[in-house]
Amino acid sequence: xxxxxxxxxxxxxxxxxxxxxxxxxxxxxxxxxxxxxxxxxxxxxxxxxxxxxxxxxxxxxxxxxxxxxxxxxxxxxxxxxxxxxxxxxxxxxxxxxxxxxxxxxxxxxxxxxxxxxxxxxxxxxxxxxxxxxxxxxxxxxxxxxxxxxxxxxxxxxxxxxxxxxxxx
Length: 168
Known about the structure:
The chain has helices at residues 2-48, 128-137; strands at 51-62, 65-76, 82-93, 96-103, 107-109, 113-122, 144-154, 157-167. Strands 3, 4, 5, 7 and 8 form a five-stranded antiparallel β-sheet that branches. The chain has a three-stranded antiparallel β-sheet with strand order 1-2-6, with no helix packed on it. Strand 1 and strand 2 form a beta hairpin. It folds into two domains: 1-48; 51-167, Immunoglobulins (Immunoglobulin-like). The mean pLDDT is 75. It has 168 residues and is of the alpha+beta class.
């Protein structure tokens, strides 16, 4: 009878331990999900404070074509470093679309700093006549406009930050 009682107690202890371990596991899972959700909302707020602005568009005209050197400054106001994964943009000259480009260059955006990014955009031969006509129509003045999105990585996922700027 004592052996039967002892076996029942051991069996009860095993069930209690299993119940305790499962309860702790569920608690940890719930807390983890809450932390991940909190981190996700912090990340969205953090990325929304990043700013991207164009500072300059220079042209390099040669017999082989026209190259545009686009300079962008990306400000990361956060303490945490972020990673720029890609930039997709549409380029306009005096409101005429010249082309679309995707740059896949990864760039570390140090926390609380401004990082400069230089992009070289080559115009296609077929785009040059309309570019020259555009220059003639606007008396040699060009207002460059760039609209796009920057994909910025911040664990556990990426987020797209829109940008748009004009410069002469």
